[in-house]
Amino acid sequence: MSKPLKQVHLAAHFPGVNNTTVWSDPEAGSHIEFESFAHFARTAERAKFDFLFLAEGLRLREHGGAIYDLDVVGRPDTFTVLAALAAVTDRLGLTGTINSTFNEPYEVARQFASLDHLSGGRSAWNVVTSWDAFTGENFRRGGFLPQEERYSRAEEFLSTANELFDSWRGDEIVADQAAGVFLRDAKAGSFVHTGQHFDIHGQFNVPRPPQGRPVIFQAGDSEEGREFAASDADAIFSRYASLEEGRAFTADVKRRLPKYGREPGELLILPAATFVLGDTDEEARELAREVRRQQVSGATAIRHLEFVWNRDLSAYDPDGPLPDIDPLLGEHRVARGRAQVRMYRDPLATAREWRERAAANGWSIRDLVIETGNRQSFVGSPATVARTMEEFVQADAADGFILVPHITPGGLDAFADKVVPLLQERGVHRTEYEGPTLRDHLGLAHPDGARVGGTGRRTAS
């Protein structure tokens, strides 16, 4: 008997502060105006995607003491955007990245519970931590936490938020569709939490959300991040683009689940994925080369090299050879607020490797940055991309993909029109939504063991 086909989960990432969007392209639109978000969300919902995802940066990046203006910079508040999108979509999940280092459980739980009510059960929370004092300067508490404390705070933050969501239980309220929600138990919403990071007690004033709790996403790739995902997350973002790496990552994370009493299907693996489509595979490959050169200008290439060298390299020609001087070690003084800085843990070894590769291939600085940077995950005709995506999922290298188009907001349109119908024909992507909530889309159980009716109100299972 043949193994049943796994469904390909699809989501759409509206890029925020980033270096993947070709914002200089004539087809690119605003990252601030609401119509850009609305167009993007409507396209995703038309293609029956699971959810839309917003990342978030809490401080503008700096380079050489000035705002780094070669990327898209800044975006409106996540909750404000998602609440507005709830009004112009019906089924699409709404996922927001909210930091656990500088926020407080009560306010975040209240915002997500409200969003879940407003959307009829479509909210999700990407729980992240913050790693640097630079970002912390925007907050009263300031500073930053060592990695092990960041994750212990995140774990307690999430467990505390769950206590708040759970403080309203089904046997404590009467949900009346016409008249609203009435208390049956005066203790509904009461909570007391005492722990290492939080010591709070009071009354949570938002009734139980339609999903019980928002769907929980996690994005860390460290040992602590993988363990956190295995214990508490419903889905984890992956950065692995190859089939072999994806299978290894999936196997590693899912082997941790039994320790927490969980099954493999209770945690979805969703890598970010870029794509370039063409009428033929060769046309798509040529377009992909053009996109990469648009994404990596000469100035961008020099700045990227400075992430490793920790020096001002503005005097170097991006179309010339790599510097023959070594990186400066110690505290990074050129780039601030850039995750890439942490990626290069041994700058001397990275510089040596890059020089060797550039010499062997005749690459300039710009060529090297293009060749070693993020590449498009899927390049080809719509048929090639649909087939390759399905192969990844059936091979357990992923459960689906979070698509990051290089043009905003219209870059998702071609995928929705040309690739999604092929996935539907192959029987691996829905043609209609089967339920109203994001948990329905992702195949996740309700925390109460209850289903959610079409009105968004809980009913007995």
From TrEMBL:
Record keywords, A-Z: Flavoprotein, FMN, Monooxygenase, Oxidoreductase
PANTHER family: ALKANESULFONATE MONOOXYGENASE-RELATED (PTHR30011), C2H2 FINGER DOMAIN TRANSCRIPTION FACTOR (EUROFUNG)-RELATED (PTHR30011:SF16)
Record-annotated Luciferase-like domain positions: 24-395
Compositionally biased residues, Gly residues: 451-461
Annotated spans, Disordered: 438-461
One term of GO molecular function: oxidoreductase activity, acting on paired donors, with incorporation or reduction of molecular oxygen
Pfam families: Bac_luciferase (PF00296)
Domain of life, source organism: Bacteria
Record flagged with keyword Oxidoreductase: yes
Record-listed FMN binding positions: 97, 151, 222
Protein name: F420-dependent methylene-tetrahydromethanopterin reductase
Family indicated by similarity: Belongs to the NtaA/SnaA/DszA monooxygenase family.
